[in-house]
Write a structure and sequence with these properties.
By secondary structure, the chain is α/β, with parallel strands linked by helices. It is built from 17 helices and 28 strands. Helix 7 packs antiparallel against helix 8, helix 12 packs parallel to helix 13 and helix 16 runs parallel beside helix 17.
């Protein structure tokens, strides 16, 4: 039997992907839906110490509550046994095995029955059941199941693939908000629910303090569930950050808005690094953050990908009459993208200027600030040391070079520091090879970030905003304490197709009250056991959920602190996984080689993705076909067209 710790580490394999499901066509039948769509919990028990760390819900009438809840929803763990479908599957032996063996199965009916009858940490179990119900299209029953997590198990803790804590309670609230917005016809609204977790921004669960407000599910007209934008035109501005061209303003309702030349600007960003198939920084054949700006593989004096890529309209991996030559810059413009995220080393300034003048692109210009040991001169294995004066001096010189080189360019939108450095652990067994020690030196790291931000503001005459690129919300408290001169909380975040969640935006608002830029998010266009078309559809819906969450928490909506997001990435890069031999970059891998165990993993890592795995070579909104005509061929995936629709109508 797997240990509890192993169980909880595996929870992300199943529990955080939210594919779009047909609300009118559930995957299987629920025989006992319960007597109440919205459970009146006060009829069956007592809420005590609401709003304190001593919160609890004490059940008085377990039988009545079970009847109201229906199958699979705590405390009803018996009625599922009476389902004819369960009895049939059980008699056929299709429910044998450990419930984790069912984790990535597409047979949702069997997964539901197996999890509904298993022994597991109760909060993780209830959340997983809710997730299965949602994936199966039982939206009302799923909402009921998610709310059961909030009522009964708000202090539950699990762990991600990377060993970081994961809290089902707050995520259950996020999922309810997501589902009631996505499916307004359910006519339900969650009011007043909040789970605040003190000390959650580190990796130590022993010091967590849970403050629980379970709130209430109530009936609500569907029209009231459609987000409505507040009128900001006459609202008082209480704070301004930045210069005349690029500024951040905060309204009296605490919402933040990015403005360029006096007009509202929502970052519709792309991480763009079109590496030619067969090349890799791992074997020294490419430097991903600059080579594409000079590549000319057809020797015609024109940079390849930005100007000479072409769309393979029928996906036959050869140029035909109906195929369209256009270039990536034009494809980005047509998609509605307005921003590219870059790093400053060795760039083609004329190309950047052309992207700005001809295609309307501006740039988030960044410095790695020692991540992967870039710019610090540190030994890769030991990692950048933020207490080492020589490392810090080298990094400061790198940032000075960036600012002096680009400060007078009109296309710079913002300066960005780092790339989820707080995840790096030097020689740690999980993060070995990241070349950065910020994880174990958070105070020193964030103090250094602030020092760099202050220096940038002294050097930049246009006073453009400065952002950090954090890894999710890890050490958000330390960022708040030590980085007062950083203007934007930027974060790389991969939380699932529901987006980032009410709790995410709320926590940043309450902790540091700064605007939020999602500096990286994305989803692979590959699923094990599914067709490429099905995987593309799942990728597109994942991106839709993420972008809509950003949009509905921008100024005028929701929490109002989102200023945009950066999709990772525009085109597949084939060098990011695969076996340990030099030809690996020429293969579009679906498995990744783990150098520590010397075994192959299903993907690069388990996570909140369509089949529970991240496939880093499949993250592009565009594919490169079979690779033979790289770097020119583009296969535009469904996610590209989804953004083309949303971004061009301002959503």
């Amino acid at each position: 039997m797997l240990s509890v710790a192993k169980h909880l580490k595996l929870v992300f394999i199943l529990c955080l992907f939210l594919p779009t499901v047909a609300y009118t066509a559930p995957a299987f039948k629920i025989y006992d839906k319960g007597t109440e769509t919205i459970i009146n919990y006060e009829s069956y028990g007592d809420f005590i110490y609401i709003g304190t760390e001593r919160y609890a819900y004490h059940i008085r009438d377990s039988i009545g509550l079970s009847r109201a809840a229906g199958e699979g929803i705590y405390p009803n763990e018996q009625s599922v046994l009476n389902s004819p479908d369960y009895q049939q599957l059980f008699s056929l032996g299709k429910l044998k095995g450990n419930h984790w063996d069912f984790a990535n199965s597409y047979d949702l009916q069997s997964v539901f029955y197996k999890w509904a009858t298993c022994q597991e940490e109760p909060g993780v179990k209830q959340f997983t059941i809710a997730q299965i119900l949602e994936k199966a299209g039982h939206i009302e029953h799923a909402i009921k199941a998610y709310y059961a997590v909030v009522v009964h198990f708000p202090k539950s803790v699990g762990y991600t693939f990377w060993g970081t804590p994961w809290y089902p309670g707050p995520v259950a609230i996020d999922k309810i908000y997501y589902l009631t917005r996505k499916y307004p016809k359910v006519g339900m609204e969650l009011v007043g629910a909040r789970i605040r977790i003190g000390n959650k921004f580190d990796d130590d669960v022993t010091n967590d303090v849970f403050i629980i407000h379970p709130g209430k599910l109530v009936k609500c007209p569907s029209r009231d569930l459609v987000p409505k934008r507040a009128d900001l035109s006459g609202m008082k501005i209480i704070k301004k950050v930045g210069g005349d061209k690029v500024e951040l303003v905060q309204f009296e309702n605490r919402h933040w808005q990015l403005r360029v030349n006096g007009k509202p600007y929502l970052v519709k960003g792309i991480s763009y690094s079109p590496t030619k198939v067969g090349l890799s920084p791992d074997n020294g054949t490419v430097v991903t953050h600059k080579d594409w700006m000079f590549d000319d593989y057809n020797y015609d004096g024109i940079v390849d990908s930005p100007y000479q890529s072409w769309v393979d309209m029928n996906n036959n991996n050869r140029p035909d009459f109906e195929d369209r030559a256009c270039g990536d810059f034009q494809l980005l413009q047509e998609m509605g993208a307005n921003t590219i995220r870059l790093y400053h080393h060795g760039y083609n300034k004329q190309l950047l200027r052309d992207g700005y003048e001809e295609f309307g692109l501006v740039y988030l210009m960044g410095d790695f600030l020692g991540m992967y040991a870039v710019g610090s001169g540190a030994n890769w294995g030991y990692g950048t040391d933020y207490t080492n004066e020589e490392d810090k001096k080298s990094m400061l010189e790198s940032v000075i070079e960036m600012v002096l080189e680009y400060r007078d360019e009109p296309y710079i939108l913002m300066w960005v520091l780092g790339n989820e450095n707080n995840y790096g652990r030097g020689q740690d067994e999980i993060y070995q090879g990241q070349g950065c020690r910020a994880y174990e030196q958070p105070e020193a790291y964030y103090k250094f970030v602030n020092e760099v931000a202050k220096m940038i503001k002294e050097l930049d005459p246009y006073d453009r905003p400065v952002a950090i690129c954090n890894g999710d919300l890890l050490y958000l408290d330390k960022f708040t304490r030590y980085c007062p001169d950083v203007d934007v909380f930027g974060t790389n975040s991969y939380r699932g197709a529901h987006g980032f969640g009410y709790s995410f935006w709320k926590e940043v608002s309450e902790e540091c009250d700064k605007p939020v830029l999602i500096t990286e998010y994305g989803c692979p266009a590959y699923m094990d056991g599914k067709t490429l078309e099905e995987a593309e559809e799942a990728q597109a819906e994942y991106h839709r959920g993420c972008w809509e969450d950003i949009y509905y928490d921008s100024a005028g909506y929701g929490i109002g602190n989102a200023i945009g997001g950066v999709v990772f990435s525009f085109v597949d890069e084939w060098w990011k996984a695969g076996p340990p031999y030099l030809s690996a970059p020429a293969v579009h891998d679906t498995k990744a080689y783990d150098f520590k165990t010397k075994k192959y993993l299903q993907g690069n890592s388990a996570g909140p993705f369509p089949d529970g795995w991240m496939y880093e070579e499949w993250l592009g909104l565009c594919g490169q076909g079979d690779g033979a005509l790289s770097p020119f061929l583009r296969h535009l995936r469904k996610a590209y067209y989804m953004y083309k629709d949303l971004w061009n109508r301002s959503l």
